[in-house]
Amino acid sequence: MTYNSTLLRLLEERGYIHQLTDAQGLDALADKQVVPGYIGFDPTAPSLHVGHLVSIMMLRQLQRAGHKPIVVMGGGTGKIGDPSFKDEARKLLTEDLIKQNVASIRRVFERFLTFGDGPSDAIMVDNADWLDKLEYIPFLRDIGQHFSINRMLSFDSVKLRLDREQSLSFLEFNYMILQAYDFLELSRRVGCRLQMGGSDQWGNIVNGVELSRRVDGTQVFGLTTPLLTNADGTKMGKTVGGAVWLNEDQLSNFDYWQFWRNTDDRDVGKRLRLFTDLPMDEIVRLEALEGNAINEAKIALANAATTLCRGEDAARAAEDTAKATFAGGGVGADLPTIDVPAEGIRIVAACTDLGFTASNGEAKRKIAEGAVKLDDEVVTDPNLMIVIAPGATRKLSLGRKKHGVLRA
């Protein structure tokens, strides 16, 4: 359909829209008033990762269109863990660890959103503020009556676990009710009218829309994004080295920049739309490039995405490091670095300490495959001891894309 509101036109143009509970209703509302919209993030780790970035960017686009983003930290739901499309229950976190994770995660949102007291300024809330105060019997009586077990069992997120005969605890089964209650509570507290999320959250979002209608008679809306996969069908953000973390203390600026620089040619246009603020006419120009020229688009993507998450200085330094390392054959200043003791370090330990490999055993296998280079020379001896003169540096590489610095 053709949208009238700036919000839905922007989201559709950039590829964020998969499902809407009431497209016409939301379009009409967004065309006449500021729409507060939220996405929830459970603090299961000290940092969010690239898999969360579509959600963060949706909140950014919501604000760019003149509406109000609400970031919900799952201090309450994080004590349970979302079972959606998981093969097993999440490890339960202590309250202290959840608080630490929330504090660590908060920082990244300040780079993507403008917080404040204005009509379209973002706010951050913690659902522990209301979920921790719920009384069990009143909650069952007032809220539980609106949920059908038959319908809850039909949701794919639950059905897949049961079809595989994998355990789904009563604790996890309650997650969808608590998420629906979040929407009701946010509607009452801050006038929230929209919940957004990934396509795997559709059932949870619909529950919240229906709960607000049944309990308060309030019309609220839901919107999901498509499942984001790479051109080869793999899930975006999953790499051999692990998650692509958004916090710099979890992943270096250079490695973050390199993740975007290494985008498959076929994914460049989609990622430019979803993960940058570049104008659409510039994106259309960049994604039309072919052959070696497509590298211009990849560098533009890496710079724009890194600038949003890590800052302009980090993006510039990462690009300079890439030029020095790859084009110039030198050692860039922004590469991951370890200090080598006077007695030296074995090459397998150096690979592991730099994060190239998960273990010394894996490093030995990579050496046997001829994938490890020291100063651009292939290493064949897994027992090699690297000794570095005071003040000197050496470059260690794994494959074509992982490089690090050893210094005395």
UniProtKB/TrEMBL annotation:
<dbReference type="GO" id="GO:0042803">
    <property type="term" value="F:protein homodimerization activity"/>
</dbReference>
<keyword id="KW-0694">RNA-binding</keyword>
<keyword id="KW-0547">Nucleotide-binding</keyword>
<keyword id="KW-0436">Ligase</keyword>
<dbReference type="GO" id="GO:0005524">
    <property type="term" value="F:ATP binding"/>
</dbReference>
<keyword id="KW-0030">Aminoacyl-tRNA synthetase</keyword>
<feature type="short sequence motif" description="'HIGH' region">
    <location>
        <begin position="43"/>
        <end position="52"/>
    </location>
</feature>
<feature type="binding site">
    <location>
        <position position="238"/>
    </location>
    <ligand>
        <name>ATP</name>
    </ligand>
</feature>
<dbReference type="InterPro" id="IPR014729">
    <property type="entry name" value="Rossmann-like_a/b/a_fold"/>
</dbReference>
<feature type="binding site">
    <location>
        <position position="179"/>
    </location>
    <ligand>
        <name>L-tyrosine</name>
    </ligand>
</feature>
<dbReference type="GO" id="GO:0005829">
    <property type="term" value="C:cytosol"/>
</dbReference>
<dbReference type="InterPro" id="IPR002307">
    <property type="entry name" value="Tyr-tRNA-ligase"/>
</dbReference>
<feature type="binding site">
    <location>
        <position position="38"/>
    </location>
    <ligand>
        <name>L-tyrosine</name>
    </ligand>
</feature>
<comment type="subunit">
    <text>Homodimer.</text>
</comment>
<dbReference type="Pfam" id="PF00579">
    <property type="entry name" value="tRNA-synt_1b"/>
</dbReference>
<dbReference type="InterPro" id="IPR002305">
    <property type="entry name" value="aa-tRNA-synth_Ic"/>
</dbReference>
<feature type="binding site">
    <location>
        <position position="175"/>
    </location>
    <ligand>
        <name>L-tyrosine</name>
    </ligand>
</feature>
<dbReference type="GO" id="GO:0003723">
    <property type="term" value="F:RNA binding"/>
</dbReference>
<dbReference type="GO" id="GO:0004831">
    <property type="term" value="F:tyrosine-tRNA ligase activity"/>
</dbReference>
<dbReference type="InterPro" id="IPR036986">
    <property type="entry name" value="S4_RNA-bd_sf"/>
</dbReference>
<dbReference type="InterPro" id="IPR024107">
    <property type="entry name" value="Tyr-tRNA-ligase_bac_1"/>
</dbReference>
<keyword id="KW-0067">ATP-binding</keyword>
<keyword id="KW-0648">Protein biosynthesis</keyword>
<protein>
    <recommendedName>
        <fullName>Tyrosine--tRNA ligase</fullName>
        <ecNumber>6.1.1.1</ecNumber>
    </recommendedName>
</protein>
<comment type="similarity">
    <text>Belongs to the class-I aminoacyl-tRNA synthetase family. TyrS type 1 subfamily.</text>
</comment>
<comment type="function">
    <text>Catalyzes the attachment of tyrosine to tRNA(Tyr) in a two-step reaction: tyrosine is first activated by ATP to form Tyr-AMP and then transferred to the acceptor end of tRNA(Tyr).</text>
</comment>
<dbReference type="InterPro" id="IPR001412">
    <property type="entry name" value="aa-tRNA-synth_I_CS"/>
</dbReference>
<dbReference type="InterPro" id="IPR024088">
    <property type="entry name" value="Tyr-tRNA-ligase_bac-type"/>
</dbReference>
<feature type="short sequence motif" description="'KMSKS' region">
    <location>
        <begin position="235"/>
        <end position="239"/>
    </location>
</feature>
<keyword id="KW-0963">Cytoplasm</keyword>
<dbReference type="GO" id="GO:0006437">
    <property type="term" value="P:tyrosyl-tRNA aminoacylation"/>
</dbReference>
